[in-house]
Amino acid sequence: MKEYPDLESAVDSVSFAAMDRSNFDQKALELKRFWRRFARNKIAVVALAFIVLEIVVAIAAPYVVPYDPYKGDFLATWEMPGSSHWLGADDLGRDVFSRLIYGARISISVGVLSQLAIALVGVPIGALAGLRGGWFDYVVMRFIDVLSSLPAILFYIILMVALGAGFWNLILAMTLTGWVGMARLVRGQVLTLKNTDYVRASRSMGAGTFYILKKHILRNVMSPIIVAIALGIPGAMLAEAGLSFLGLGIPAPQASWGQIIGMYQSYIRIAWHLTVFPALVLAVTMLAWFLLADGIREALATTKPN
Amino acid sequence: MAETVLEIRDLTKSFASRPGMLGRPKVKNIAVDNVSFAVSSAETLGIVGESGCGKSTLALTIMRLYEPDAGKIYFDGNDITRLNMRELKPVRRNMQLIFQDPLAAFDPRLRVDQIIGEPLEIHGVGTLRSNRDYAASLLRKVGLYAEDMHRLPSEFSGGQQQRIGIARALALKPRLLICDEPVSALDVSVQAQILNLLRDLQDELGFSYIFISHNIAITAFMSNRIGVMYLGKLVEIGETESIIRNPLHPYTEELLAAIPDPDPSYRDNNICSSSAPAELEGLSTGCVFRMRCPIAQEICAAEEPPLRTVHSGHQTACHFA
Amino acid sequence: MLTYISKRTAGTIGVIFIVSMLTFACMHMIPGGPFDAISLEKQQLVPENIKRGLNEKYGLDAPVWKQYFLFVKNAVLLDFGYSITYPNRTVVSIFRDHWGYSLQLGVLTFLFSVIVGVGLGIIAAINPNSIFDYLGTGVSIFCLVIPGFVFAILLQVIFSVWLGWLPTGGWNGPKYWIMPVLANSLAPILILQRYTRTSMTDAMQANFVRTARAKGVSKTRIILIHVFKNALTPLLTVGGPLAAGLIVGSFFIESIFRIPGIGSYFVLAIGARDYPLIMATTLLWTVIISIAYLLTELLYAWADPRVTLVKEL
Predict the structure, then answer these.
(1) Confidence class of residue A120 from pLDDT cuts 50, 70 and 90?
(2) Contact (Cβ atoms closer than 8 angstroms) between residue C152 and residue C183
(3) If DSSP states are collapsed to H, E and C, what string results for chain B?
(4) Closest partner CB to A196 (pick from B92, B104, B119)
(5) pLDDT of B96-117, one tens digit each?
(6) Smallest CA–CA separation between C3 and chain A, in Å?
(7) Of B12, C33, B261, B144, which Cα lies nearest the Cα of A15?
(8) Are C250 and C102 in contact (CB under 8 A)?
(9) Mind spelling out the 3-state secondary structure of chain A?
(10) A263 vs C209, which has greater pLDDT?
């Protein structure tokens, strides 16, 4: 009978103490690791700083804006950028700078809320379709096929014409159309993971579907989901801007960037400031979110072993 | 003294293959074809055959990871063929699998202690503390250092990973371990260590093995009895001694002849098959092996030879044994 | 192969029908019929005689699914009725009069994007990690992040309002083409540049190219003859997304630059809740994009028959 190497109990207790962390601590460790990798990407950090600043300003908007964005001033109509109105004023004399800050609230909330709603709907559906298969999977695949056959904006337009402009209608329209992307992603991941040996091993040990989902699948699917959400935000902002430009998104008098551009686009010769500044803010914000999402993707890709 | 731990009767599992390359109609691929055998306690039954003969499918079907199309599985005398998942769970404690690719059998995000602790967690055994101590003792038993428990499996060598897999399989003190090509993915020098470990564990703990491999030499080393599979069918089964010294089926002879002999003066009398591996489809009549068999006659195409006993404990499916 | 073709074609037709049904259902979701909604919104009354005529024609008093069949029947005959905003013009006549502009914009954009996108992609592939490569990637990122219509606005302001070099809108000659085409090309350039670069790089690393180089064939010759052919064929298969991008771009670009094409009218129709026009245009876009995707898939299947064997689901 072979002799196996044995350990002093002293060594054992040391290693156990080192490992004596609750789940919470382990997650904190993972977060720290993620942050370290993320921070290596300077550009992404700058983007993050910009976004945080923007969010803070948006939340604190009522206290930060120099003027009430809804109140007109007939003495200031069509005023070009200057000392009293930094970015000028619109046809009713409302301050552009203030309106743009309020516009940030709309863009960010539409962007974030729509993606969260999409994840809430798409992830369970995709996971179930991948795990269960059968008729449910078939039906989900048909939905995915149809809703992927056209550019999303066409669906948004159709839905918004039917529903009418408005914040929640917009979120609804985006969710109804966008869940398929998330479902497709999750379904694909689940299908791959379902056939791995370790899921088989788990089943062979007697694990049930929910245990496997919780312990093995969800973890491995988290990263792509987070990245998808992050990448979806700039897209959602753009969609909102485009729809508001067409008059379908957020209605006046609320100040959405796209809507402002749409309203004053024909006055570009006399009031370019009413289109250029919202356009620039939109572009810069989208860029920042995109760089942030890209940074997250890179950081997640290297943190987890595979 | 020897009680039957596992018995399978006429176990069959087939897959409908996808439409053929030229749109031919779907062909049923019978991976496991009416296979029957029994495994006693503290015994090792080896299953040999070349790749694609259905050995792995057999293992997965016995474990009910695939649903059998026909046949029965008895564990400790109880029919577990049609039990639902809830009823099957306690049975699962007694049967465990060891996989060919050790690293693939672990969730890459889990640490070794979590991996070994998983079966305990699934069955609600013990507390976090006691399980950790238990996991440490298991690791020691398979020849690893308990202090490595907090590492990820990817940080270990192939042989060590397989040891972790064995430790996990032992956690619930199973009565039967099914080893699906447990050493095929390892370096030759490491293979011997793992094989010895498996034998020692069996001596100490008294469970049974079903040892699956394509290498008959290794299988002979490990097993008390050997079953030979070809294209889903069990073509010969018997005591190891009997099979090695007196192979009755032409396929077994072929497998034995293929073992490289380290003696340079040995000249083999070339029992080679005549052609490449047979077409997997459309072999509906007669003996499965007839396309490759050097002694095939007309009767082999007409009638499928049944598995019959030639001498005690030694059965074969051939018309000419 | 034939089964593949018929399956995909049937699938495409199915999608077109489903989308048209969805659109139809949405248009009729508004209680009281589409024409009353406009009255509510626009605070103007649709003239009674027109209302009666429309109700009759579209059978608006009949259940919705019946109306849908009527719609489909008319659609096949290319009869979409009269536009609401232009009560004297049929939808089809609006299409007829204005599709030429959209086509011109589309073709010019396509040509420009192909030249720039494929060109940048080729250069980037031939000189990996050079300034050209980074330039190409930079352009890609720019196209990705700056939305087409934002770029259009900026161009308009800079070159038209501030510098006065180019006209703000209209479509009367080459000067009018520059900005719209430029802005509309962002998405297509992105797609084409990325695709070309990857495709060329893959082809250049292929074994047969290594063999040719080992044989001593000059680099230029290799590129021109071997790589080109193999790399550019897959580009044919990017037609689907490209068409989608061009069409979507057309709404915004035509609107911003006041090009009297179908995209412009679509935007106006949306604003005016001109349901016949909206329905017809949506259907038109759906058909064009679906056909583009279908052709793309079939071309791909022709180029690489292995895809026909993958059993979906």
Answers:
(1) very high
(2) yes
(3) CCCEEEEEEEEEEEEECCCCCCCCCCCEEEEEEEEEEEEECCCEEEEECCCCCCHHHHHHHHCCCCCCCEEEEEECCEECCCCCHHHHHHHHCCEEEECCCCHHHCCCCCCHHHHHHHHHHHCCCCCHHHHHHHHHHHHHHCCCCHHHHHCCHHHCCHHHHHHHHHHHHHCCCCCEEEEECCCCCCCHHHHHHHHHHHHHHHHHHCCEEEEEECCHHHHHHHCCEEEEEECCEEEEEEEHHHHHHCCCCHHHHHHHHCCCCCCCCCCCCCCCCCCCCCCCCCCCCCCCCCCCCCCCCHHHHHCCCCCEEEECCEEECCCCC
(4) B104
(5) 999 988 888 998 888 888 899 8
(6) 19
(7) B144
(8) yes
(9) CCCCCCCCHHHHHHHHHHHCCCHHHHHHHHHHHHHHHHHCCHHHHHHHHHHHHHHHHHHCHHHHCCCCCCCCCHHHCCCCCCCCCCCCECCCCCEHHHHHHHHHHHHHHHHHHHHHHHHHHHHHHHHHHHHHCHHHHHHHHHHHHHHHCCCHHHHHHHHHHHHCCCHHHHHHHHHHHHHHHHHHHHHHHHHHHHCCHHHHHHHHCCCCHHHHHHHHHHHHHHHHHHHHHHHHHHHHHHHHHHHHHCCCCCCCCCCCHHHHHHHHHHHCCCCCHHHHHHHHHHHHHHHHHHHHHHHHHHHHHHHCCC
(10) A263
Are the Cβ atoms of A287 and C15 closer than 8 angstroms? no
| Model-level ipTM above the cut of 0.85 | no
Q: Considering only alpha carbons, which residue of chain A is nearest residue B198? A: A2
- Does residue B295 contact residue B250 with C-beta atoms inside 8 Å? yes
- pLDDT of residue B121 exceeding 60: yes
pTM of the model: 0.78
**Which residues have a Cβ under 8 Å from the Cβ of A176 and sit 6 or more positions away?**
A155, A159
Distances in Å between the Cα of B44 and the Cα atoms of B34, B183, B207, B240, B301 are 21, 16, 9, 10, 34
DSSP state of C252: H
Radius of gyration of chain C (CA): 24
Residues in a beta bridge with B16: B28
Which partners does chain B have (≥3 C-beta pairs < 8 Å)?
A, C
Q: How far apart are CA A279 and CA A264, in angstroms?
A: 12
- Chain-centroid distance of CA B248 in Å reads 21
Contact call for B23 and C3, based on CB within 8 A: yes
- Tokens linked to C4: 């593949």
Cα end-to-end distance, chain B, whole Å: 32
Residues of B in contact with A1 (CB under 8 A): 200, 203-204
Contacting subunits of C (3+ beta carbon pairs below 8 A): A, B
Kindly state the DSSP code that residue C66 receives in the 8-state scheme: H
In this structure, are residues C97 and C105 in contact, taking their beta carbons and an 8 Å threshold?
Answer: no
Tokens 């209209």 belong to C170
**Does residue A82 surpass a pLDDT of 70?**
yes
Residues of chain B in contact with residue C309, where contact means CB-CB under 8 angstroms, are 19, 21
As a whole number of angstroms, the distance between CA A81 and CA A84 comes to 8
> Closest Cα partner for C42 from C273, C218, C312, C289?
C273
Tell which residue, B220, B269, B260, B214, has the closest CA to residue B242: B220
User: Are the C-beta atoms of residues C99 and C259 closer than 8 Å to each other?
Assistant: no
Query: What residue type is B297 in one-letter code?
Result: Q
Q: Which of C283, C275, C308, C313 is nearest to C7 (CA)?
A: C308
Interface touch A154/C286, C-beta < 8 Å: yes
Query: Does residue A24 have a pLDDT over 90?
Result: no
B20 Cβ partners below 8 Å, 6+ apart? Answer: B26, B27
Are A118 and A178 in contact by the 8 Å Cβ rule? The answer is yes
Q: Rounded distance, CA A178 to CA A155, Å?
A: 10
Q: Distance between CA atoms of A83 and B101, rounded to whole angstroms?
A: 72
